Amino acid sequence: MSDHPSDTTLQLHADGELASAERWEVERHVQACPACAREVDAYRQLLGRASELPRAIEPTVDIWPEIERRLGEAAPLSPRRGRGRRNVWSVLAAAAVLALGVALGRLLPRPVTGPELAAPLPVQTPSVLVTYDEAGYASAIAELEAVLREVGDRLQPETVATVEENLAIIDRAIDEARAALLADPANDQLHRQLATNMQMKIGLLRMITDAVTADL
Amino acid sequence: MIAISGALLVALLAPQQADTTITVPAGTRLNLHTFAGEIVVETWDRNEFRIEADHGPGETVHVSRSGSVVEVAAEGRSRIPPRIDYRVTLPAATDLDLGGVNSDISVTGIGGQVQATTVNGDVRIEGGSGVIQVQTVQGDAMVTGARATVRAQSVSGSVLLRDIAGPVEAQTVSGSIVLDGIDTDDAEASAVSGSIFYDGEIRPGGRYSFVSHSGRTTLALPDPLDATISASVLSGRITSSFPEISAALEGSRRGTVVVGSGRASVEAETFSGEIRLVRRGEVRAPGRTNGTI
């Protein structure tokens, strides 16, 4: 039924990130399509909520081990099938990506620009960390991994091996960025690296599960 | 030939090959998803979709039209998803939504929006003037000769965008990204362990962003250059054959330098990789010559 814009396109439209030609095309569609209009409204509400997230938190505890533990315990999906199931994780993934995009793309200090910026970055309180939507990220990853476990037998073993190998590469990159952030929590480059890699993991899982479930 | 009208569902039951041609109004979209097999899409100047399918005995190809969408699907006799090779010919202005699991996808000359995703296989798009989105997990994503907005992603394979006029966005985990012959004011590439190569225009007011965790990023930039260059590495290094960039950034972890009037923004970041900023022609992309990235 896909004469609608993709989820990604609607998200970009909601975030005002589309180029002008595509933006007007999508806007015309959204004005005539109540379903897509609802999607765009939902994304915009999510963006609004994400923008209200606290800009910083005190790093009292490292919650990542708990997230990893929960990922390992992720319960299998309820027996929903096909597109309906995809909608669930699409929303979760979109929520996590959007929250990350907002939290890390907007709330973080912008990249250093201008001739005067070869000077050292402004000093920030070393104990301050920018917040991440860790729960949303963990939920999206868990949901996507659960879908993948359900339909993974449709993939060739070498493809599964490739996926696992690349997820491990991303996880290592995430771990390295997290470790570096402990030493330099105000480093905006590290935050962007971390955000990029977290988004890439969600994107990878989403791509696979989307492709494998598309013809169920 | 089987005639199809309205939302009618038509089943093609030929034992080995299905071949149907349907007349479609302008703006009709094609949705074609398969589990395994090749998808080849070409164009002609008729208002018709021709769908040829090679399949096994007992497998059925369904072609249905509902409103402005033609959907192609298949089913087999067993629970094992069928392997079907499709060859589709349709008007150039058609929008496409193509998908496969173990499938190569090839599209030539489409001017509409193209979305093509496969898990295990290559995606090749030649030409095009709409919005092109390609994804593959274990394979290469290639778009050439398009005047379009292009978004391409491969997990372990290469992303090759060559001779593109329009915004480009590329992503890979462990493969390489080659953006070659790009004319745009909006380019973005990110990789985890893979390398990034960009050879293209840097337009005033344009934005060019490249992020890699541990791979090498090579930017072949025009000379004279008119851009604000921001580069940062955590444990890698920055090198440049532009004297002003080299003087400002080599040996440092991060910095910004204005070249010319600095009207374009070029940002490159890596965690532990290398960033090289060279003149166009000094290093050539794979496939162009014997040069390396």
Report on the architecture of this protein.
- The complex is a heterodimer of chains A (216) and B (293).
- With 216 residues, chain A is mostly helical.
- Chain A has two domains: 1-52, no CATH class; 56-213, A middle domain of Talin 1, CATH 1.20.1420.
- Chain A contains eight helices and no strands.
- Chain A has helices spanning 7-14, 20-32, 34-51, 64-72, 82-106, 134-151, 157-183, 188-213.
- In chain A, helix 4 (64-72) packs parallel to helix 6.
- The longest helix of chain A is centred in the C-terminal third of the chain and has 27 residues, at 157-183.
- The model of chain A is unreliable at 50-130 (pLDDT under 50).
- Chain B is mostly beta strands.
- In chain B, 2% of the residues lie in helices and 56% in strands.
- Chain B contains one helix and 27 strands.
- Chain B has one helix at 243-249, and strands at 9-12, 17-23, 29-36, 39-44, 48-54, 60-66, 69-75, 85-91, 95-102, 105-108, 114-120, 123-126, 131-138, 141-144, 149-154, 159-165, 168-172, 177-183, 186-191, 196-200, 207-212, 217-221, 227-233, 237-240, 254-259, 264-270, 274-279.
- In chain B, the strands form two sheets. In chain B, strands 1-6-7-3-9-11-13-15-17-19-21-26-23-25 form a 14-stranded mixed beta sheet, with helices on one face. A 13-stranded mixed beta sheet of chain B has the order 2-5-8-4-10-12-14-16-18-20-22-27-24.
- The longest helix of chain B is centred in the C-terminal third of the chain and has 7 residues, at 243-249.
- The relative contact order of chain B is 0.10.
- The model of chain B is unreliable at 1-14 and 289-293 (pLDDT under 50).
- The chains are: A mainly alpha (216), B mainly beta (293).
- Chains A and B meet through helix 7 and helix 8 of A and strand 3, strand 7, strand 9, strand 11 and strand 13 of B.
